[in-house]
Design goal:
Layout lengths: L1 H20 L17 E2 L27 E9 L2 E5 L2 H9 L1 H18 L1
Antiparallel strand pairs: 1-2, 2-3
Helix pairs in contact: 2-3
């Protein structure tokens, strides 16, 4: 019987150690309160308190990929534009007028279709 108790105690201690090493489900979060690196389908779902440049932005204005990240953004005229990665944010900053024009076109298309 003592060996069964020892095995049970060992299993419990192993499970606790694994839980501690895995972080017990604790996640890194961005300033928006969302899990760090969490990709959003549309900008309006990002709850960071900032006004959105285009509330229904669904794609990165640089590479046209979906999955916007709350921590990858640029503020333009007091409104926030989101990106899917740091490299796209940098490209936008280097050629802002080109990508703003592209985003404005998306806004017009959205307005016409809704």
């Amino acid at each position: 019987m003592k060996w069964q108790r020892a095995v049970t105690v060992g299993m419990i201690l192993s499970a606790l150690a694994v839980g501690l090493l895995a972080g017990c489900g604790k996640q890194d979060t961005s300033s928006s309160g969302a899990p760090a690196g969490h990709a959003y389908m549309v900008a309006r779902l990002i709850q960071d308190g900032a006004p959105k440049y285009f509330e229904y932005q669904q794609k990165c204005p640089v590479c046209d990929e979906g999955g916007l990240l709350a921590e990858q953004y640029v503020d333009v005229d007091g409104k926030r534009i989101y990106f899917d990665m740091e490299a796209c944010k940098k490209s936008f900053q280097e050629n802002q007028s080109k990508f703003l024009e592209k985003l404005e076109q998306r806004k017009k298309e959205w307005d016409q279709s809704h």
